[in-house]
Amino acid sequence: MNKITTVLAWHLALALAVLSPLALPAQQATATARPAKASNAASAAELERYLAGLKSFEAQFRQTLHDSRGRVTEQADGRLYLEKPGRFRWEYREPNEQLIVSDGKNLWLFDVELEQVTVKPLDASLAMTPALLLAGQASVGESFTIEAAPAAGGMKWFALTPRRQDTDFTRLRLGFAGKDLRAMELEDKLQQRTLIVFSAVKRNPRLGSTLFAFVPPQGVDVIGTPQR
User: Fold this and answer.
1) What pLDDT, in 10s, does the model give residues 7-21?
2) Contacts (Cβ under 8 Å, ≥6 apart) of 162
3) pTM to 2 decimals?
4) Domains delineated in the chain
5) Closest listed residue to residue 49, CA positions, set 63, 65, 28
6) Quick one: which of 63, 66, 56 has its CA closest to 78?
7) Which H/E stretch holds residue 171?
8) How far is the C-alpha of 28 from the C-alpha of 10, rounded, in Å?
9) How far apart are CA 16 and CA 82, in angstroms?
10) What is the rounded CA–CA span in Å between residue 72 and residue 10?
11) How many CB atoms lie within 10 A of CB 189?
12) Cβ(161)–Cβ(174) under 8 Å?
């Protein structure tokens, strides 16, 4: 398989905005969704309830990229750690080692093979994407239109469409089994589809703070300036 591209890696990391902020209580989410249709409002409130109790998350993942014709073009495996608000560690282990870390202030991407680190202040990264929720200042319903999608693969699915037009992906789908997030799917403007399936899921585990700290190794190239 081809190496996971840097652009794709950034987009996937930013998609975690849906999970990273502290979610609003269910009644507040319902109030936010009132202008939407009743069914959409109910779906938004239900998704908010799923996320409200999620404080941390740990899982293995398999990520598969399909082109516009449905052909598999890239595949990767790794592990994800997440802790609200706005901190996560996305480890790609196979076929190529890459690491993406959000420490709450900056997004770091370390390409081990290239010996290169790219860093962007969190607010600068958010300005280029619909991932406003990473800052923890908005509810899911304020940034996305939310609809219930047909059940599939033993999971309950929600479809999220960005309210902004200047986005890199056109739709995000989240699949839940019970209260556990089991899958995430993104569709982009090129009609490519990225499916991420989670396994060995741990809901609200106790995670060490060192997981979300990143210091560039000596000797690697660093592109960008972190926010202090």
Assistant:
1) 555 556 656 655 565
2) 130, 143, 144, 169, 170, 172
3) 0.79
4) 6-223 (2.50.20.10)
5) 28
6) 63
7) strand 169-177
8) 30
9) 9
10) 20
11) 9
12) no
**pLDDT at residue 161, rounded to an integer:** 87
Residue 19 identity (one-letter amino acid): L
Comparing CA positions, the residue from 83, 24, 31 lying closest to residue 48 is 24
Q: What beta strand segments (E) does 67-167 contain?
A: 72-83, 87-94, 98-103, 106-111, 116-121, 144-152, 155-162
End-to-end CA distance of the chain: 37
Q: What digits encode the pLDDT tens for the residues 49-83?
A: 877 777 888 999 999 999 989 999 888 999 999 88
- Which candidate, 14, 2, 50, 1, places its Cα nearest to that of 188? 14
The token pair that represents 215 in the structure block: 């210091």
DSSP at 67: -
Structure tokens given for 3: 């190496």
Instruction: Check pLDDT > 60 for residue 105.
Output: yes
Report yes or no: 223 and 116 within 8 Å, Cβ to Cβ: yes
pLDDT computed for residue 116 by the predictor: 95
Burial class (CB in 10 A: 0-12, 13-18, 19+), 140: buried
DSSP code of residue 34: T
Per DSSP, what are the bridge partners of residue 201? none
In tens, the pLDDT along 116-139 reads 999 988 765 554 443 334 334 456
Structure tokens, 117: 């680190």
